[in-house]
Design goal:
This protein has ten helices and twelve strands. The strands form three sheets. Strands 1, 3, 4, 8, 9, 10, 11 and 12 form an eight-stranded mixed β-sheet that branches. It has a two-stranded antiparallel sheet with strand order 2-5. The chain is α/β, with parallel strands linked by helices. A hairpin with a 2-residue loop joins strand 9 and strand 10. It has one domain.
Length: 259
């Protein structure tokens, strides 16, 4: 199976490490798009800082992030799973997983990235700042840059796909029609007093806990029919929703109760 995760806006910069080697990254079919986005981002941030900050949606106190982007080619790298921080990744708590569970992440998890398209948790990357909804001058909206190549990589996968990405990152490469019969779009719903809603903190934390349990499982589902039951066996209540069109994936609601 494959679980698709969003990245985090906040990232931890490693103090030391080798420079980025694009040829070593997973999903080599994304190499050309990666090069275009990388070069455009570095060029943008190597020029007028205030203009770059405006394009990136940064405030006047975040100009250091522009400098970080300008130095991407020489910056130290670390595994992507250590670079990304925030509620989801705190709940996943990858560093405390057993070695066998960490190894499973290399095949069961892919992380969406506005800079790199898709990554495996162990891919070595530098700290950067780039959101999925950014339009870089001379390059265009990132959704248009990434969509075709990311979808091609998703078509090449096998087994069920659980898409836990946030909306902006889904746009970088929606699940293609060819994966509709094995794809699920996960949604976390908080139920309180019989009413359900999406709450950001619970959404992210539950996704992190779910992925932790998925990595801890010795066996993963091999077919789409097995995935909902697999998630339930991990301790989560789920509801499956059939798509309106045969080219769309199923919906998989994960219900969290609170009083």
């Amino acid at each position: 199976m494959l679980v698709l995760l969003p990245p985090s806006e906040g990232k931890t910069g490693p103090e030391s490490g080798s420079r980025l080697k694009p040829s070593t990254l997973s999903f080599p079919g994304l190499a050309e798009s990666r090069s275009h986005v990388f070069d455009a981002l570095v060029a943008l941030c190597s020029g007028n800082k205030k203009q770059a900050a405006t394009v990136l949606g940064l405030g006047p106190k975040q100009l250091d992030l522009v400098d970080i982007n300008a130095r991407l080619a020489t910056a130290p790298t670390a595994p992507a799973i250590e670079i990304y921080t925030g509620v989801l990744y705190d709940a996943l708590d990858f560093s405390t997983l057993p070695a066998t569970a960490k190894k499973r992440a290399s095949t069961r998890v892919a992380i969406s990235s506005a800079l790199f398209g898709l990554l495996r948790p162990g891919d070595l990357i530098p700290q950067y700042r780039l959101s999925a909804d950014t339009t870089i001058p001379g390059l265009g909206p990132l959704a248009e840059v990434w969509r075709d190549s990311v979808q091609a990589e998703l078509r090449a996968t096998t087994g069920p796909i659980l898409d836990l990405r946030s909306g902006a990152y889904v746009k970088l490469g929606p699940l293609p029609a060819e994966t509709a019969d094995r794809g699920f779009v996960g949604r976390i719903l908080l139920e309180k007093a019989g009413k359900r809603s999406v709450v950001s903190h619970h959404n992210k934390a539950t996704k992190g806990l779910l992925v932790r349990e998925i990595l801890g499982a010795s066996k993963a589902p091999r077919s789409a029919d097995d995935l909902p039951g697999f998630v339930e066996d991990l301790g989560f209540r789920v509801e499956v929703h059939q798509p309106k069109k045969p080219t769309d994936p199923c919906g998989l609601d994960i219900i969290v109760y609170t009083t």
